[in-house]
Records
---
Amino acid sequence: MVRVKEVIVVEGRCDKNALLRAVDATVVCTDGFRIFREPDKRAMLRALAKERGLVLLTDPDGAGALIRGHLSGLVDPKYVRHAYVPDVYGKEKRKRFPSKEGKLGVEGMDPETLLEALRRAGATLDETPPPRREPITKADLCRLGLSGAADSAARRRDLQAALALPERMSANQLLQVLNVLSSLPELEALMGRDPAERQDPADP
């Protein structure tokens, strides 16, 4: 499967699912207009943009244009690429009725159309097999004291400062960013932990 270097931003989970059938990529959802009210997520997108760049891929309707415009104003244009799907009239299978403008959204596009949209946007595509990398999990955050402990919030702030990330990020948002910016051994080194200290879940 083709990998995309940039982080792709879409409106909803169904858009994300459709995209992940076409490419191997980090995909972030705006949850529609909720992005307007979520400063933490906007800060996360700015951080991801500086590290990997963003590709904005919203629906081809008025709402999609409004969200795209809002996101475009959040990030330096040099970090942003714009991908567009064509106007195709119809109705997604999961919906009872067509959208207000009668157009299919990102979720209604086939994988070939989505891949072509990314190519035309100038996204960085790589068709070589990805290197194997152990993902960072919620259990790792707990083990490293970044979640579930009395001082976890302070530990996360110290880590975010070390990685030049914004202070206002939830544990879930930090986890998503860490899996883009870092590896588990690198995170353990930052937290001053020896990988040999990891305990097998089967051990008592």
---
Amino acid sequence: MFERSGIYYLYDQPTDMRKSFHTLGAIVVSNMGLVLQSGAGFVFINRRKTHLKMLRWEGDGFSLYFKRLEQGTFEHLCGLDNYSLSYEKLLLIMHGIKTKKIKRRKRFSLGKPG
């Protein structure tokens, strides 16, 4: 379900975790203005920041990932550009690491051929 090359979006409002496929999908389309069947993962966190759901189109249907913390909270980021969330930041949130002061160190990468 979590792919390094995948695209993820975090809804910036607290979400009722009783919502399932249809209502979470409606939030993606109407509130976020995004395409539901794009293959991206759409992440939702509840008000207490103890529950997380991710909705994703798998090509032939939707999957819904759900995580409930027994202790602690998730970091719920606000003010993201277009709700966009990197795979790395999603993993940090899932593991309870604060992302506010994390600084990426410079790394070598091959430029795009062109």
---
Amino acid sequence: MPEIALGDIKIDVELKDIKNIHLSVHPPNGNVTIAAPEKMDMDTIRVFALNKLKWIKNQKSAFQNQDRETRREFLNQESHYFKGERYLLQVIERDEKPKVILRHGNLEMYIRPNTSTLKRKEIMDEWYRQEMKEIIPDILNKWETKIGVKANDFGIKIMRTKWGSCNIEAKRIWLNLELAKKPIDCLEYIIVHELVHLLERNHNV
């Protein structure tokens, strides 16, 4: 895929059978893409991007300035995020099966006494995973219909360097567990991105 650089900003250029040029800055990392008519030369595309440089920088800055999580200890009044919203954690010790409940603007974590930090993280991660399993099918169905593809399955796991991936042969989409903390738009964008791989491995159409 062609690429142009404006200082430290890299822009992926996709030449398509379209009439107008389209510029996008994508969540969650602020990746920049331009879709341009097939016959448009790169110099013209570059001038277009330069004219939009201030807007591009503003959009990238908005993504980069989103709240970032520091290391979590899973203690009372600690901030945690779900679907882009901030919640305070309420830790409640009881001798019963652990669970997490979203209630009245708080995340209530019910744990057994002396539960370790690692175990608390596992409990929270499992809650995030189950919540994502409730959210994802509707988004998948919506975009499978619009794009005209069908994923056989999806999975959720901790991914260190990617937000998502697609096993094209198995038609299975993998999504990063961290997306549970991001706005729904971010999750939806990653799902669409991975579904497109089922049409074109390298997005060259």
---
Amino acid sequence: MDAIQSVVAAYLKTLGFRKSGRAFNREREDRMTQVVSFQMGQFPVGYYVIPGLRESLYGRFAVDLGVTLPCVRKDADKCEEKKFYQDYDCQIRECLVRDEEETAQSWWLIEQPYNRIGCEIAALLERKGIPFLDQFTSYRQALAYYCAHRYFPFQNEERSALEAALVYRHCEDTEQYLSLMRKAKDCARGHKGFVEFVSSIEAQFGKDG
């Protein structure tokens, strides 16, 4: 894994990414951080495999992408800033997927030649991964993506509306903030816990945000 990652690390370094363990970070505008990380496959819990249901991913790895939305981490998730972020810290997330894959996530087998695999990952990042991340280099771009798609990657409609609302509030657009907070609750009808969660955030900021 180290040999494969070293090839990718050399490519990401040219783009300004910093490395810590299996993850790479690059800070953009508004303190948003782009993340590329390697996820190591695990043997199924319980130590037995059921073909097609509980496959063993030991000896394999995936590449995860993410972008933090600092105001959402602060206002909704109640998380403090970190010196280094992992993909699971991100609000916007995606998996790096081969063109021929039909699943939502590609798993690479750790095998020789390691340099070839590293070059494949680096090429795929250049062609697909970095362009995905570069859709989110500022709050303005994140909101443009939301307006175009009405969701954020990895999030359902109601969570996307909540996160977009908090970004609008941070950008001092009260009208859009209030509108999307209402949408978040409307989309979550029947999900009492989430509606209460949104209401608790509204209460922090008062009636007019």
